[in-house]
Amino acid sequence: MESDIIGHLVDVEHKASTLVDNAKKEAQTRLDKAKVKAEKQYLEEYKKVIEELEREYVLKTNSLTKIHQDTIQAYKEKIGALGQDRKAFNNLLDKLLLGA
After folding, report:
1. Average pLDDT in the 77-95 region?
2. Helix or strand (DSSP H, E) at 23
3. How many CA atoms lie within 13 A of 84 on its CB side?
4. Is the predicted pLDDT of residue 6 greater than 90, yes or no?
5. Is the N or C terminus of the chain more exposed, i.e. has fewer CB atoms within 10 Å?
6. Is the distance from CB of 61 to CB of 55 less than 8 angstroms?
7. How far is residue 15's CA from residue 7's CA, in Å, rounded to a whole number?
């Protein structure tokens, strides 16, 4: 009778050990699947963020390029409209170079 009880307890322990091992394997499988899914979601979101940042960069760069070109053009037009004061320039050169 005592040996039957010990045999039964050994069988129960073996079944419990098998159950725990199976549960560990199942948990690891689920964890691996969750990691793969999370990585995929992360990469998708990362790609969306990168695409949005690149779009914003292109828009901002184009805007700044336009502003820069407009500013340079306005400056060129302003300088072109001033004309030259040759008499004042020649007087300055005489004064600086000839000391007159």
Report:
1. 89
2. helix 2-82
3. 4
4. no
5. N
6. no
7. 12
